[in-house]
């Protein structure tokens, strides 16, 4: 009997969601930034900063969780015979969708995962963001129903599928033995992090479980609407419950604790509702057209999907643009050119949705 | 026999196309050609929710899924 058949998938995804959510809150206790825990978009942004792709000095750190996710997925994919090197499904479109996803997410200051983490930490702006994600997914479903797709991928050489996991292994080495050209924040969120080995271990565990369960923080909403399938959504719900209960258990909501309920004065956040919503519409739409959120793209790249690997490069470059061009928000408010970039991103996604469909 | 070839497509296109085929051909069996384990799982789950039985055959390029609507007596 195959090991995969020993655990029922619908139970495993709830277990995985709980582990992931609990880890998100615990990582904050162990040093990661408040209400960020494990934000995949934020962490690619920090990696972009550490590599010098942007110079926002408060958000630069080689977050070891990200290589952990991918190498955990890589291990799992090989263990269960699911590693398949493939690619060639509109890589440039995926690159740009990835970049615009990141720009939208950095207007809100978080990906669909951090929206849940923020809400589980009392930040009600998470509700606005989740509404944006669902609206974006709904627009994406409109396109999917009328035949949108990015084309078929084909098999590529196995070595090509290894490239992105190898790059991530290299990033991990740079994090462990940092040369002088890697930037590390001395203050701000980028300076706050758990011990490296803890981050790597949590990353590996979550990456392994996410590969097994196909966990996706946009796909869960999409499948609920598209096919009334709650499988992926149960992972989202379990994640939220895990993070929320852990925050209560840690005393984060007690008097003098880390968190409070409300829209204002939340950690690493701003409360412009219009652009928080529209930023996450962009993120939700881009991720639906891509077929999954940044976590899922990271996992797919670990399984040998070179198109997902290109998407990750788009996320990273998008983070560089977001900070270099004053598109990203800060706790002071929305960035000067953030709204214009969101509108351009939405126009790009709508054009992609309308134009890329089967004949 | 209606055949849906979604080899090379990633999630959620296989599910969308299978759903379309089932909607457009009520009561008809549908064969779906998928490449990955994930697509096999997703299409099988959709078929189950539509009251179809699923017969899976391994193929060199993935899996052939035969979706048969259960006859109502």
What would your notes on this structure say?
- The complex is a heterodimer of chains A (359) and B (73).
- Chain A has one domain (3-355).
- Chain A is an all-alpha fold and 359 residues long.
- Chain A contains 14 helices and two strands.
- In chain A, helix 6 runs parallel beside helix 11.
- The radius of gyration of chain A is 19 Å and the shape is globular.
- In chain A, strands 1-2 form a two-stranded antiparallel sheet.
- In chain A, 62% of the residues lie in helices and 1% in strands.
- Chain B is an alpha+beta fold.
- Chain B has one domain (2-69): Translation Initiation Factor IF3 (2-Layer Sandwich).
- Chain B has helices at 13-24, 37-49, and strands spanning 2-5, 30-34, 52-59, 62-69.
- In chain B, strands 1-2-4-3 form a four-stranded mixed beta sheet, covered by helices on one side.
- In chain B, strand 3 (52-59) and strand 4 (62-69) form a beta hairpin.
- In chain B, helix 1 (13-24) packs parallel to helix 2.
- Chain B is globular and about 30 Å long.
- The model of chain B has no long low-confidence stretch (mean pLDDT 91).
């Amino acid at each position: 009997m195959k090991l995969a058949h020993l655990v029922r998938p619908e139970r495993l995804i709830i277990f995985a969601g709980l582990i992931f959510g609990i880890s998100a809150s615990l990582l904050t206790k162990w040093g990661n930034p408040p209400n960020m825990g494990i934000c995949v978009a934020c962490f690619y942004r920090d990696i972009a900063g550490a590599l010098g792709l942007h110079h926002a000095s408060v958000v630069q750190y080689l977050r070891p969780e990200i290589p952990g996710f991918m190498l955990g997925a890589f291990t799992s994919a090989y263990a269960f015979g699911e590693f398949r090197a493939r690619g060639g499904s509109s890589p440039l479109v995926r690159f740009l969708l990835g970049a615009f996803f990141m720009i939208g997410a950095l207007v809100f200051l978080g990906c669909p995962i951090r929206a849940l983490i923020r809400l589980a930490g009392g930040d009600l702006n998470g509700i606005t963001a989740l509404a944006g994600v669902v609206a974006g997914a709904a627009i994406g479903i409109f396109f999917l129903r009328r035949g949108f797709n990015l084309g078929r991928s084909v098999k590529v050489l196995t070595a090509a599928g290894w490239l992105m996991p190898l790059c991530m292994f290299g990033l991990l080495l740079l994090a462990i033995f940092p040369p002088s050209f890697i930037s590390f924040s001395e203050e701000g969120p980028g300076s706050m992090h758990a011990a490296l080995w803890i981050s790597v271990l949590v990353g590996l565990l979550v990456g392994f479980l996410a590969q097994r369960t196909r966990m996706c923080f946009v796909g869960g909403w999409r499948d609920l609407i598209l096919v009334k399938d709650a499988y992926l959504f149960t992972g989202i719900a379990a994640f939220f419950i895990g993070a929320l209960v852990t925050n209560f258990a840690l005393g984060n909501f007690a008097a003098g604790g880390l968190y409070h309920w409300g829209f204002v004065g939340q950690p690493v956040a701003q409360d412009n509702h219009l652009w928080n919503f529209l930023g996450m519409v962009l993120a939700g739409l881009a991720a639906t057209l891509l077929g999954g959120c940044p976590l899922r793209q990271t996992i797919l790249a670990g399984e040998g999907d070179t198109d997902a690997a290109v998407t990750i490069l788009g996320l990273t470059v998008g983070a560089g643009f977001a900070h270099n061009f004053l598109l990203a928000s800060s706790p002071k408010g929305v960035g000067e050119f953030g709204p214009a970039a969101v509108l351009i991103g939405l126009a790009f996604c709508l054009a992609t949705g309308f134009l890329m469909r089967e004949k | 026999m209606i055949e849906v070839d979604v080899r090379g497509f990633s999630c959620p296109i296989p599910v969308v196309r299978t759903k379309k085929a089932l909607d457009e051909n009520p009561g008809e069996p549908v064969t779906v050609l998928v490449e990955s384990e994930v697509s096999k799982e997703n299409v099988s789950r959709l078929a189950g929710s539509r009251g179809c039985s699923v017969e899976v055959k391994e193929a060199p390029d993935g899996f052939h899924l035969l979706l048969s609507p259960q006859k109502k007596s």
